[in-house]
Amino acid sequence: MTTPQDSRVQRLQSYLQADPGNLNLLRDLVGEAQRSGQPAVALEALDKLRAMGELAADDEAAAVVALLRLGRVDDAVAHAQAVREAAPDAQAVRLEGARALLNARRFDEVLQWLAQPFDGDDALSQMAGELKLLALWHAQRQDEGVILGRELAAQWPDNPRIHACLSGLLYDESLAAEAAQHAQRAYELSPQHAYEALHVLASDSVMRRDTAAAHRYLDQALQRRDGDGRIWLLKGATQMTEGKVPEAVTSLNRALAIFPEHPGTYLTLAWAHIALKQLDEALAVLKKAIEVSPAFGESHGTLAVVLAMRGEREAAEKAIRRATMLDKDGFAAKYAQTVLDGTAQQDVERLFGEVMARVNAGARPQG
Questions:
Q1: How sure is the predictor about 80, in pLDDT bands with cuts at 50, 70 and 90?
Q2: CA 308 to centroid of chain Cα atoms
Q3: From 7, 96, 190, 313, which residue has the greatest number of CB atoms within 10 Å?
């Protein structure tokens, strides 16, 4: 189906056939092609401007954007670096170059490129703030990100992207109530610009046992991107809360395929197998969890639960000691001891609620 944007692109292309040297038409084509999701068409028009010697700094920034949208991340970075070397004062190039570096996961360089202010351009300054927050978040510098995010949210209270990024940073710092406030603010301002807040809203809904709301947020996230491990993790957690354990196992395995180094996902999957009385499967999952994160106390505590259920008392006691040494307040180790003592209550929903309270399900942003 042809969209109005497609029609405008086709119309501009037909005009250019009659007037191929028209600079305004070429730039209009670049803009329409970018808006309609046709970066290859935009790049072709930019190449024509370049061949004519008419490529301005803003055009170079558009070229970086087009390369990124084509998935050519390394080319986008290289192009931005070359342009910045030739024109160091080109602010739009500096911003889009930082975006390319973020996609290349070169987070320290993102912050270097954005270190200087964007004088006289409030829009670029706000976008730069968002990129800084994402870079700090990806780099696991949450404490710095929270400080910066609060400053930016106070400066631009109506920017949904800043509120969304701040909500994720706060969530990872276990500041769940404040995180939910900023996530809700982002969503109220603009749902389509609040992607980073959706996992916070879904997690908050799960903790309040409002699984219908959680599914709404998760479905919106999956419509935007189906390769985010934290969303599949929360989908599994929501299904667990609803008692749909086999479905949860499927979602959690999907999360692990995307994000195989997140111990909280393994832990959640292990409890799903425990709920299904699949102790061998739970044991295999927990061994992998401990392999990827040996110092995560809840994994050792849950291992103790499984070993206790299997009747392996000595091994369970050893796992309890290890878990308690790593986290004296760990829930799973305490529960494992009740299994050994014969006083455990087999209420899987309650148990899983305790796990969710202990495990940060909001894995850092993917992609």
A1: very high
A2: 36
A3: 96
Residue 358 CB-half CA count within 13 A: 24
Distances (CA, A) of 336 to 115, 249, 275: 50, 22, 15
Query: What DSSP line would sit under 152-192, residue for residue?
Result: HHHH-TT-HHHHHHHHHHHHHTT-HHHHHHHHHHHHHH-GG
Cα torsion for 228, 233, 234, 237, to the nearest 10°? 170
Q: What is the pLDDT of residue 72?
A: 96
Gyration radius (Cα) of the chain, Å? 25
Contact call for residues 99 and 68 (beta carbons, < 8 A) = yes
Nearest to 241 by CA among 282, 272, 266: 272
pLDDT tens track for 291-300: 999 999 999 9
Q: What are phi and psi of 194, to 5 degrees?
A: -120, 30
In sign, the C-alpha dihedral spanning 190, 194, 199, 200 is: negative
- How far lies 149's CA from each of 144, 171, 180, in Å? 8, 13, 14
How many Å separate Cα 46 from the centre of its chain?
A: 32
Sign of the torsion formed by the C-alpha atoms of 270, 276, 281 and 282: positive
Of the chain, the percentage scoring pLDDT greater than 70 comes to: 92
| DSSP state letters, 289-308 | HHHH-TT-HHHHHHHHHHHH
pLDDT in tens, 144-200: 999 999 999 999 999 999 999 999 999 999 899 999 999 999 999 999 999 999 999
Is there a contact between 237 and 268 (Cβ–Cβ < 8 Å)? Answer: yes
pTM above 0.90, yes or no: no
Q: Is the pLDDT of residue 360 over 70?
A: no
Q: Of the candidates 94, 92, 88, 133, which has an alpha carbon nearest to the alpha carbon of residue 113?
A: 94
In 3-state terms, the chain is what percent helix, strand and coil (to 5)? 75, 0, 25
Reduce the DSSP state of residue 53 to 3 states and report it.
coil
Q: Tens digits of per-residue pLDDT, 243-270?
A: 899 999 999 999 999 989 888 899 999 9
The candidate with the shortest Cα–Cα distance to 104, out of 130, 82, 81, 124, is 81
Contact 266, 256 (CB under 8 A): yes
